[in-house]
Amino acid sequence: MEKSKAIKFIKLALELSEVDIQDLDLEIDIDLFEEGILDSLDAMTFLFNLEKLVNKKIIEIDEDFEDFKISSLVSILSKY
After folding, report:
1. Considering Cα of 69, then 29, then 76, then 23, what sign does the dihedral take?
2. 58 exposed, middle or buried (CB, 10 Å; 0-12, 13-18, 19+)?
3. How many domains does the chain have?
4. Range of the domain at 49
5. What is the 3-state secondary structure (H, E, C) of 11-52?
6. Exposure class string for 21-54: b at 16+ Cβ within 10 A, else e
């Protein structure tokens, strides 16, 4: 998957998770958790929605997943 498409999926998964990102420019170095964009419940919903959008089980994402940097998520999605 291309970087632009991965970022599009990340934004859509955030919107589906009902996270307000309208005024936010998602830059590649943003950590969604550290910036307060996601909390622990939102994070689980976001990851579920991301897998749904990709239409595949993302094996790098499990119950211990903690890396919510946009760059890391793009890197993972680039494999799909």
Report:
1. positive
2. middle
3. 1
4. 3-77
5. HHHHHHCCCCCCCCCCCCCCECCCCCCCCHHHHHHHHHHHHH
6. eeeeeeeeebebbeeebbeeebbebbbebbeeeb
Can you give the pLDDT of all 80 residues of the chain as single tens digits?
Answer: 999 999 999 999 999 999 877 777 778 889 998 888 999 889 889 999 999 999 999 888 777 777 899 999 999 999 88
Helix (H, G, I), strand (E, B) or coil at 79: coil
**Residue 75 carries which side chain, given as an amino acid letter?**
S
Name the DSSP letter for residue 56. Answer: S
CATH number at residue 43: 1.10.1200
Q: By the 8 A CB rule, do 65 and 47 touch?
A: yes
